[in-house]
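Marked as duplicate of an earlier ticket. Keeping the data here for the record.
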Amino acid sequence: MIAIVSYVSIGSYDAQTVNEDEILSSILTELELDHEIVPWSDTTINWNKYKTLLIKSTWDYFDYYPEFLQWMGKIKSLNIQVLNGLDTLFWNSSKSYLSEIKEKGYPVISGKKLNKGTKVEFDLIKDAVKSETWVIKPLISGGAKNTLKIESEKWLDFSDTIQDLVNHEDFLVQPFIKEVQEIGEYSLIFFNAEFSHAVLKTPAKGDFRVQHYFGGEIKVIEPNSKMMNAAESIVKDFASDSLYTRVDGVEIEGEFHLMELELIEPYLFLSSHQQAISNYKNALKKRLN
């Protein structure tokens, strides 16, 4: 028995989306594999009955992070196959991984960490993150939760809000990348470290968030060779054993810069490309048979 591990939806992160849990379920049905869709947070589930857990849409893990860590610890003790693997999920669950990738020499929009409970000092941020506009987000987050875009001259207007947020959890300050707003963010999807398909996510007019539930548009694209080589190199070094990988980035003066390496619960844009579902199915066959 296989579990497609999802979450209890309250409509926050899956509005205006195609249900990829159901697509994955249909693939497993075609492969004649017994399965069911279950939320990770359901404490009544007997996880021992599953041979494999496919982590697909755990889209609220950052809302309940301590509980999610406990759940991963429990699953690890059961020695169940998990895809993507538990060590990968833990590493990828905090945006601290961005600094690690940058230290390896990759162009990365990493930023400066604001430690929980510390005093937020604007002068230190300006020195550490060269920009006139910043994006501030929780270090452990997704779906643009508590994400702010702040211009230099308006920092004081937000200083109390920022301090209150940092009093409760770690945050990350990144430079605002104008190319995201002007052109969009690229997502390259890989299955078993092999490229499958790619899209360009463009924010709604006047917004900077590319998520489709904020009005962002999705367009299928063919990555140029430079972008492809950059993404393939990142996957090789940091996600070579992953069932699925989504490499999110932006082109700045012709060079691909990593924004996010999504290895926990990325939306895979399976309905956007003719070969996407077929590629996913083939990857699953190799892992599950």
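See parent ticket for discussion. The longest strand covers residues 194-202.
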